[in-house]
Amino acid sequence: MAGLTALVGILFVSAILALVVLKKRRWKVKGNPDAISLTSFNDDLEKGAGPRKFSYKELDTSTNHFSEERKLGEGGFGEVYNGYLIDLDIAVAVKKISRGSKQGKKEYITEVKVISRLRHRNLVQLIGWCHDQGKFLLVYEFMPNGSLDFHLFGKGNPLSWAMRYKIALGLASALLYLHEEWEQCVIRRDIKSSNIMLDSSFNVKLGDFGLARLIDHELGPQTTGLAETLGYLAPEYIKTD
């Protein structure tokens, strides 16, 4: 009888401990939704044949430990560095999301999910991604001629009218693909000269899809909110949003 009582006691204590562990696990999941999204995010991307996952060590090495000499520029959500991937033998641009930026992390996930599915000659190619050691990074093809704003407002060489026409045509081709030709309508939002990149032949490569939204073609533009930079918006769009 004593042995039976002891066995019942052990089973009771074990059940209590199991419930405590289960509740802790559920609390962690509820308290950390980013962990859920990143886990499913990893699973979805690693099944595909698109951009590859890099380790932080690989990207740290490729940019010489993110040295100032390699910095190409910086924006509201991070800094961009010039890198070189030895195993792929290519130059890349590595965007490092600012640490602690919740909006930056959200845009990171949006950008990888959207641009990894798109294929067009006038869109920046996403080569890879990394979220490791609490850091979020994006790896793009390197654009030797930088962004359009550098040539319009900076110290770049003046653009001929023939070159400007070529750039406008390339941008229009990218937008036609995003709005009409892909399986869903990609509302790019926030198109400005700093997001229009130029390759070695001054071909347009539209980049930075962190604010992009995917909507079905039959739905109207009212499904997205105002998110662009003032000064690059059509006045009638602001008035009717």
From TrEMBL:
Top-level taxon? Eukaryota
Mind telling me which InterPro entries this protein's record contains?
Answer: Kinase-like_dom_sf, L-type_Lectin-RKs, Prot_kinase_dom, Protein_kinase_ATP_BS
The GO terms this record gives for MF are: ATP binding; protein kinase activity
Organism equals: Capsicum annuum (Capsicum pepper)
| This protein's UniProt keywords | ATP-binding, Cell membrane, Glycoprotein, Kinase, Membrane, Nucleotide-binding, Receptor, Signal, Transferase, Transmembrane, Transmembrane helix
Q: Where in the cell is it found?
A: Cell membrane
Q: Which family does it belong to?
A: In the C-terminal section; belongs to the protein kinase superfamily. Ser/Thr protein kinase family.
Every Protein kinase domain range: 66-241
What topology in the membrane does the UniProt record assign?
Answer: Single-pass type I membrane protein
SUPFAM superfamilies from the UniProt entry: Protein kinase-like (PK-like)
Q: From the record, give the transmembrane residue ranges.
A: 6-22
Q: Which residues bind ATP?
A: 96
Question: Which GO biological process categories is it annotated with?
Answer: defense response to oomycetes
The protein's name: L-type lectin-domain containing receptor kinase IX.2
Q: Which PANTHER family is this protein grouped with?
A: PTHR27007
Q: The organism's lineage?
A: Eukaryota, Viridiplantae, Streptophyta, Embryophyta, Tracheophyta
Instruction: Kindly state one GO CC term assigned in the UniProt record.
Output: plasma membrane
